[in-house]
Prior knowledge:
Elements: H1 29-44, E1 49-51, E2 61-64, E3 74-84, E4 88-93, E5 103-108, E6 110-116, E7 122-128, H2 129-142, H3 153-169
The structure holds nickel (II) ion.
Amino acid sequence: xxxxxxxxxxxxxxxxxxxxxxxxxxxxxxxxxxxxxxxxxxxxxxxxxxxxxxxxxxxxxxxxxxxxxxxxxxxxxxxxxxxxxxxxxxxxxxxxxxxxxxxxxxxxxxxxxxxxxxxxxxxxxxxxxxxxxxxxxxxxxxxxxxxxxxxxxxxxxxxxxxxxxxxxxx
Length: 170
Ligand code: NI
C-alpha cells in the first residue's frame, strides 16, 4: 500500500464532477489497490473520510471510517442519497483538502444512502449523526463541491485567509 497525494484547495480538479464507476472495474486489482491506498491515506492523515476526487481520481467512490477505534472501514461506490431527513445537524467540518480550516455546516441529520461495496454488492444504509454528515461531505466532493461553499462570503473569505496564513507558516 502507499500514501496518495491529496489535492488541496484551490486545485481546479477539486471542482471536477466525477463519473460513475463501471461495474466491471470494481473487481480490477488496480481499483482494489486504489481503495486500500485511500484507506491508508485517510487513516494516516488522519481523517474520517476521503473521496476519490481528492486523490485526483474522478470516479464516484469514497472511503469513510468515523469510529474512534478506526476499525470500521466503509467503501461507498457510486453512492446516491435516497432520503434525507428534515431534521438538521450542525457540525464543525474540516477537510483534508483544506487543512487546518474548520467551520460549522448545516446538513440533514439522517439520510438513506445506497451504494455498492468493494465486492460490487449493492447495499442501502440508514445513517445519522457524524456518519451522515461525513457521507454527505464526501458525496459533495464527487460533485466538485467543498464544505466552504456552504459558508457566507464573509466566513468563506475568513476560512481562505486562514488557510493562506497556515501555508505561509509551513
Ligand atoms: Ni473533504
